[in-house]
Amino acid sequence: MKRVIAIDGPAGAGKSTVARRVATALGYLYVDTGAMYRAMTLKVLRHGIDPRDRQRVAQLARETDIALATGPEGAPQVVLDGVDVTAHLREPGVDRAVSVVAAIPEVRQRLLEVQRELARRGRVVLEGRDTGTHVAPEADLKIFLTASPDERARRRYLELVAAGHPVTLEQVEEALRQRDRQDMTRPAAPLQRAADAIEIDTTGRTIDAVVEEILRYCREGE
């Protein structure tokens, strides 16, 4: 059985849902690395700091504690300085700023230390944009999820509407295009498929089908 599983891909490809389900099926810890960057971004915005102000953001990162926890019903939680902020991580303001904050080397280094320590313990499913290339390049199994741009935008739009955010599909499409550009061109650990990752296109597929495919890869070689 693979002990460290890295699942990467762009926004809207289905990473979070699939990774959570895989972790639950295996009884592994689920680590949402992207949520950790979102928590850092949330704190930056709440402090009224310009996300592009590298010096101030870097200093704030050094003073920040971000941890993962499990809620009363088993749902994953992100705890920022002792407070559960999970419900606020998908707010549009965080969506717009997270790529900028995540591109700051000091922020990445601060969170990378936490993420790598979790990976070293094993029995973990890491989910994000650089887990297979940067966080855990020695992962036992690397998956890169993709989906068509239309499918990704539709999923993200429905997610935001369900959470009560007043957005249009066109706004979501533009936000995803901007996020992709930022993620793929940032100097520090850009979004890219690891050379040894298995690519899975989730367009038009059910979550169950994608999860089962990954579980088959996990069990290969038992």
From TrEMBL:
PANTHER family reported in the protein's UniProt record: CYTIDYLATE KINASE, CYTIDYLATE KINASE/PANTOATE-BETA-ALANINE LIGASE
EC number: 2.7.4.25
Major localisation: cytoplasm
Subcellular location: Cytoplasm
Positions contributing to ATP binding: G9, P10, A11, G12, A13, G14, K15, S16, T17
Keyword Manganese applies: no
Domain Cytidylate kinase: 5-219
Keyword Nucleotide-binding: yes
Reactions it catalyzes: CMP + ATP = CDP + ADP; dCMP + ATP = dCDP + ADP
Family annotation (CDD domains): CMPK (cd02020)
Protein name, UniProt field: Cytidylate kinase
One term under GO cellular component: cytosol
GO annotation terms (biological process): nucleobase-containing small molecule interconversion; pyrimidine nucleotide metabolic process
Molecular function in Gene Ontology: ATP binding; CMP kinase activity; dCMP kinase activity
Family matches, as InterPro entries: Cytidylate_kin (IPR003136), Cytidylate_kinase_dom (IPR011994), P-loop_NTPase (IPR027417)
Gene designation per UniProt: cmk
Domain of life of the native organism: Bacteria
Gene3D superfamilies: P-loop containing nucleotide triphosphate hydrolases
UniProt KW keywords: ATP-binding, Cytoplasm, Kinase, Nucleotide-binding, Transferase
Family: Belongs to the cytidylate kinase family. Type 1 subfamily.
TM region positions: none
